[in-house]
Amino acid sequence: MHPFLDTQRCHVGVVFALAIEADAFDSRGRDILEIRPDGFLIREGRVAERRVAWVVGGTGIEKASAATQMLIDGHRPQFILSAGFAGALADGITRGSVATASRVVRMNEEPLALMPYPAQAVDETWAEGASRPRSQSLTLATVDRVLCTAEEKKSVAQSLAAELVDMETWGVAKVALAAGLNCMSLRVVSDTASQTLPAEIAALVRPQSAMRKFGTAIAAIGHRPRAAVDLWNLWEQAVVDGRTLADSIELLCRSLPA
To answer: What is the pLDDT of residues 76-112, one digit of tens each?
Structure first.
């Protein structure tokens, strides 16, 4: 019998949006069991001797909410972690740094409180690489599309009084809190407040098959050849950011009571 085919609760359930956010973390687990309910791929295994379940749910609130509910129903985690990449909305937040937040906001919705990242989860040697989680007082905004320009980021920062932006955490937190669970957000900053992203990135992060995504990339390159270089650079950065994210989650797992 697989060691996880029982009723013991997971220490934490982790919700990613994109495969590239989860790829590095996948390699940190052992005794991994894979389950495919309703189109999702959920993995459960041991990370730092803690029992962890994680899912790549897709981009946007609707998919993130469904993935979170699936994780809660099937794996009974003690709390939920919304993990992945986020854009900076405030100056001074550097690309590649790890950021946490004390609350998540969304236009025309109530703000939701987030669980703090535990101080004991910060490894001082690792933190010297500028990846230490930032102040717990940051506010994270969840929006419905990628913010590609500095002007768009400034507008959201002003309207929602936020320093970070993603497309999932509000939905993840809403489902977790409704189930009586705390939710934490742990994000690697993928772009600064002043950085302009390639317009093509918005199309590539939409939910679609690998073949359709390949076709989208080819079409983008055909329309704008420079996009090939821009997208390659973003992919390389995302691979590095994924490793930073995996380090952060593993350290968090080590800090949890066994």
So the answer is: 999 999 999 999 999 989 899 889 999 999 999 999 9
SS3 248: helix
165 contacts 140 by C-beta, under 8 angstroms: yes
93: which residues sit within 8 A by CB, 6+ positions away? Answer: 99, 134, 163, 164, 189, 192, 193
C-alpha of 111 from chain center: 19
Ordered structural domains, the chain, with CATH: 12-255 (3.40.50.1580)
Mean pLDDT of the chain: 84
pTM: 0.85
* DSSP codes, 170-225: HHHHHHHHHTT--EEEEEEEEE-TTPPPPTTHHHHTSS--HHHHHHHHHHHHHH-T
218 CB burial (10 A radius; 0-12, 13-18, 19+): exposed
Q: What count of residues does the chain have?
A: 258
Spatial separation of the C-alpha atoms in residues 119 and 92, rounded to whole Å: 22
Convert the pLDDT of each residue in 32-75 to its tens digit.
999 998 888 999 999 999 999 999 999 999 999 999 999 999 99
Reading the block at residue 246, the tokens are: 């995996």
Q: Write the Ramachandran bin of 48: left for phi over 0, alpha for psi from -120 to 50, otherwise beta.
A: left
Is 173 or 231 the better-scoring residue by pLDDT? Answer: 173
Rounded CA separation 103/50 (Å): 26
Q: Which tokens is 112 given?
A: 């939701």
